[in-house]
Amino acid sequence: MIQLNKRFDETMLVLPATLFLILFSIYPLIFSFRLVFFKWFLNKPNPPSFIGLSNIQNVLLDARFWNSLKVTLIILLIAVTIETLAGLFLSLLFRDKVYGKRIIISLLMIPIMISPMVIGIIWRFILNPEIGIANYILKMVGLQPLIWLGDIKYALSTIILIDIWQWTPFLFIIFLSGMQGISPNLYEAAEVDGASEWGLIRYITIPMLKPIMYIGILIRSIDSFKMFDLVYILTRGGPVNSTETASLYIYKTGFNFFNMGKASTMSYILLIIMTFLIQRFIGKKEIV
Amino acid sequence: MFKLKNLPILLLLSFLILSVFSSQLLAAEKIVINEMMFSGAAQEVLIEQAKRFMEENPDIEVNITWVDYASLHEKMMTELVGGTGRYDVMAAITDFMPEFIGGGYLEPLDSLIENDPPEGWPDDFPDSLLRYQKDADGKIYGLPWWDGPVMFYYRKDLFENPQEKENFQKEYGYELNPPMTWKEFLDIAQFFTRDTDQDGTVDFYGAVQGARQGGQNLVYDVLLMFFTNGIEILDENFKPVFNTEAGAEAIQFYADLMNKYKVSPQASTTFDVPESGDFFLNGNCAMHWNWAHIAGFAEDPEKSKIVGNCGYSLMPKGENGSNKSLISYWTYAIPKASKNKEATYKYIKFITSKEMDKLMVEYYGQPVRLSTWNDPGFVEKYPFFPWIAKTHEDIGVVPQVPEFTQINDVLQITASKVIAQQADAKAALDEAAQMVEQIMREQGYYD
Question: What are chain A's domains?
Answer without folding.
Answer: 55-284 (1.10.3720.10)
